[in-house]
Amino acid sequence: MEEVKVVSGEIEKLRERVEKVKEALDLIPKEIEELERELEKVRQEVAKKEDEIIAVAREIRHKEHEFTEVKQKIAYHRKYLERADSPREYERLLEQRQKLIEKAYKLSEEIYELRRKYEELREEEEKLHQKENEIEEKIYKLKREYRALLNELRGLMEELNRKAREIIEKYGL
């Protein structure tokens, strides 16, 4: 009879462990689901950042092209100034050239600001990618833990069945 108490105590411990494993197994899918929703949000943010980066890069290219055109016009105006026939013509060309220089300076500042914005967006995108990787790693670990718990549950169930068979065989139940 003493053996029955020992075996039934072992069985009770196994059942308690099975319940704990089942509880853990019930929680993990919910955690994974929450993380996957968060991951989807982060991926949407990444896509938005990428769109912003592309838009800023296009704007930079556009401004650089415009800047190049203005520089060429400034160079041509220098040649025109050398060939100016009258003082009035010279003054008009000089004014135009000054406006072009101011425009070039303004474009240069805009390009600088756009490049700064581009770098900031790149950094933000990199942070989002890091966050995405962290979430993916958490999901991977939870799935691995889930598989380990399933294996443990299988082992516990096999142990319970084995103990039950031993009792049945031993006492002819």
Describe this structure in words.
This protein is mostly helical. It contains two helices and no strands. The model has no long low-confidence stretch (mean pLDDT 90).
Compact overview of the structure:
With 173 residues, the chain is mainly α. It has one domain (2-171): Helix Hairpins.
CATH-derived topology: Helix Hairpins
Main CATH class:
Mainly Alpha
The number of E-state strands comes to: 0
Order of helices and strands: HH
How can the largest sheet be summarized? none
Query: How many helical stretches?
Result: 2
Low-confidence runs of at least 5 consecutive residues:
none
Strand residue percentage: under 5%
Overall mean pLDDT score? 90
Distance between the termini: 15 Å
Give the CA-based shape: rod-shaped
CATH architecture: Orthogonal Bundle
Helical content stands at: over 70%
Summarize the topology:
Layout (H helix, E strand, L loop, with lengths): L1 H82 L3 H85 L2
Helix pairs in contact: 1-2
Record keyword descriptors for this entry.
about 170 residues, about 95% helix, mainly alpha, single chain, Helix Hairpins
